[in-house]
Specification:
Length: 124
């Protein structure tokens, strides 16, 4: 099963990724976040950064719903993320190979065209 170290290793292996200083992990490409630690909010309490849960950019509402409804043991969402193409992933329930696919897909959707070309083998 995967953990925060796997997220970090996989994200940093992708072209042009920046890690933003945080209490957990937070990765961006072209100035856009694609995977970060879940900032859990509970009423009346301070926010807690959960490094056992990753927030992933998924592109659109249809993909989000497909993941949440199709694999509720892995993915979930909260009202705070309604209307956002983001889904939470329980890292302790996902294999590293699947995590790599998810992180790469999130990166691919957020990276500028010229940066995506680097991974696709078309860049310089």
């Amino acid at each position: 099963m995967a953990d925060a170290d796997d997220v970090r290793r996989l994200a940093l292996a992708l072209p042009e990724v920046q890690e933003v200083p945080s209490d957990g992990f937070d990765f961006r490409v072209g100035g856009h976040g694609f995977v970060w630690s879940y900032p859990e909010r509970r009423p009346g309490q301070r926010r807690v950064i959960r490094t056992d849960i990753a927030v992933l950019y998924v592109g659109d509402e249809a993909e989000k719903q497909a993941l949440v409804l199709g694999e509720p043991d892995l993915f979930f969402t909260t009202p705070a993320y309604d209307g956002s193409p983001l889904v939470m992933l329980r890292l302790d329930r996902v294999g590293v190979r699947r995590l790599e696919e998810l992180v790469t897909d999130a990166w691919h959707m957020r990276a500028p065209d010229e940066v995506r070309a680097l991974l696709d083998g078309r860049g310089g």
